[in-house]
Write a structure and sequence with these properties.
- Chain B: Keywords: Phosphoprotein.
- With about 800 residues, chain A is an alpha+beta fold.
- Chain A has 28 helices and 22 strands.
- A five-stranded parallel beta sheet of chain B has the order 2-1-3-4-5, with helices on both faces.
- The longest helix of chain B is centred in the first third of the chain and has 13 residues.
- The radius of gyration of chain B is 13 Å and the shape is globular.
- The chains are: A alpha+beta (about 800), B alpha/beta (about 120).
- Chains A and B meet through helix 1, helix 2, helix 6 and helix 7 of A and helix 1, strand 5 and helix 5 of B.
Chain lengths: ~800, ~120
Amino acid sequence: MSIDMTEVRQLFFEESFESLDTMESNLLDLQVGDADKDLINSIFRVVHSIKGGAGIFKFESMVGFAHTAETLLDEIRSGEHSVTQAMIDVLLQTVDVLRMMLTQLQASEPYDESSVNTCLISLRGFLKTHETDTTTAPSAVVSAAPVFEKKSTQYWKIIFKPDESLLKTGNDPINLFNELALLGTLTVEAELDHLPTWQELVVQNCYLNWVLMLEGNVQRQHIEEIFEWVEGDCELTIIDLSAELVSNDAPTVEIAAESALESSSVESVTPPTVASEPIEAQGAIHSELSAAVSEVVDCAPETLEVSEVPDTFTPEESLEIPRNFEVSESVTPEETTAFTSEMDISVTKPVDKAPPTPKIDKAEVEDALGLKNQATLNGTSAHLSATNTPSSEASSIRVSIDKIDDLINIVGELVITQSMLDQVSENFDFVKLAQLRDGLTQLERNTRELQKSVMRIRMLPISYSFNRFPRLVHDLSVSLGKKVELKMSGEHTELDKTVLEKMSDPLVHLVRNALDHGIEKPAERLAAGKPEKGLLHLHAFHQGGNIMIQISDDGAGFDMKRIHEKAISSGLLNPDDPVTDEQLYEFIFHPGFSTASQISDLSGRGVGMDVVRRNIRSLGGSIDIRSIPGKGTTFNIRLPLTLAILDGQLVRVGEEIYILSLLSIIESLRVNSEQVNSLAGKAEVYKLRDDYIPVLRLYSLFNIPNAVTRLEEGLLVIIEGDGQRIGLFVDELLSQQQIVIKSLETNYKSVAGISGATILGDGSVALILDVAGLIKLSQTSVPIMRRLAKEREHEYQH
Amino acid sequence: MASILISDDSSSMRQMLCFTLTAAHHQVQEASNGSAALELAKRHSFDLVITDINMPNLDGLGLVRALRHLPDYQFKPILLLTTETDPEVKKEAKMAGATGWINKPFDPDKLLAAVRKVLG
């Protein structure tokens, strides 16, 4: 049976990433010197689960790595270590390494082994128990067990004497026999010797013993596997009757060697029975056996060189070899001869008629094992690259059950409404009009709820984004030598997944800035009469259909004077101009202002403040700043709830209908033609109060026939995007409604000035105008106009 | 077809188990920790319980012990999922009354073989 693992793999990755986040935050909560049992257990479980999952998908090196981390955690758990900061740091590093490995494995790309090894060495440095090598970690060994592919028929005698209590562990002998029967031909004989009298019989007990004969292409390993679970609850003897029967035409030496070795590992049976029993039991075997024995009797006994054998053994088995051979010491010389010569092992030292002394070179065995592990690992890595499918960018999201339940509930109601409308429509009569209206109202309500529910599925709590900050703040404050307390609130506020993802970088930038430049060093803070520990507060909440994210610190605040100076020196501001704080804040977002600036207070790493604002604006949001010198700075970010639906204003141009985002509209007005100035006969500006606004005639831009061309007859819609305004000339405004955005790129291609499309109630397609894009278009098409407008503005002001 | 209860705090492990077992036409119910599994087991008579060892609330061994005290589960097969190859853990599992164990990572075919082995 083969199972498509892609989906499960994906789930494994997601779950692992998530649990690594938990592990990280748990580590950050962990106090030095005090091993909180719950935290340690929770951390342990994360590593444990990842190890288990990685094993399923044969990410062997990850299993090994996780195993080492797990060992350390286990030692901490059992109180062998007290937690040190160094230990926490190494475990945090472990989180990073695991995350990196997962990311690379998910992308089917090789990962940086050196960082894995560095971390591994640090982890091992803490370990009390000596760990040999991760490649011999238990799980790796399990998969390293070679597969036996033998074709010869074998005969096994199995004596199975279960304890009376066997049934209480849920093991049923019949099931075991059924399993055996799958391996080959099985004959079962029950021994009733221990059966008590009826009065003494306890139904729950097992009184029977069994002797089983199994014939087929079966390895000892297979039989042992079947009895694995009852090992401690029974007396079990497995005898290989065919060990001696392997005839000269045996295809490989290995088989013989293996069988012989195995038969010598029978523990509870004295060697003579090995020879005598099968002869009695199986007449047919008899002659062959004697032939085999007599044939080899002549040979001198030889010393075993076990180092030649391991190829056919699982590591565990090979390590047991010494013990097995002690048992075989009681074997009579003749039989020993049979065993050893069958193994066709090179003569190293003749021993006269004495039991062979096995010489096991441990190093050699380990070498052999090591080699095999190597081989297996190579095999799996090849397997890995073969099974890995390139991970698609479109990842999945985890949705809470109650959201799904809501959805199902609403769909149920929708079905009811539908059947109700069905009934009304049958033999429709005007008497039923009221009923029809009720039905339609209900349908409308259902639809609205359904829409809301579906949208909620895309919503994720902002904690997904916030959760990374404890670590970031911890690391940064350590490297900056500052003391910072991070406070987070409103983490459960939900946000559209896309918005959340795109907000990730801007938030990191703002948090970094706050730590780097906002919050002062402990000494400075104390000097300023503030507590030594700075406070960084991340706060999310709903406000009027928007999500607000506040990032505030109690640091030094902006140095307005320096911003002012910088603005003047970079030619953005006239030295004599009066300027408000708000206007100065505006400069912070000016491209190049932060990065090229001498004002280290504002310089950031990674994205600059201009990029932060651009990202937020591209999401339809806004950002503003409030800063009080000496008291701290607060950034307020306002974001739309979702990107998939927008509140739209329908506008008509000719026979076409376009949609504008309601958020971008500032006002709409009838045009007073006296306030329109035509520049160079083409470009027009409209004087709106103290402002000059470029006019963009939509019909001319999009070449729409039969549209209103006289400005007085249409409407001017003032829209804002990217901090600029234009007046959009349209025929008329229609209704406002919620618009489900369909991507134009995926369905057609990207068009300048259009951000998407939607389907209207009557089934027609309407295009959604991209406000920022339109402003850009208007600028490229009317550059002169803008210059003139600016000049006029100056004239007006003076 | 048997009705099987699986208990593991890792949802990918649960999904993996569930996937494999339902593919073999078994009916599966899931619990994410030991005490939830115990509650389910009391309400429904499962033919087989497969449980992880490391779980919050009630761990796998605790679950096995608790189940063995229920008349309905006195002789039912209970398999433990374990990555520990430590014989001590297995011994402890046997003492608790576990039927057997499945080593994580498991091969789907091996899991089904183990299930078949205890269910007959």
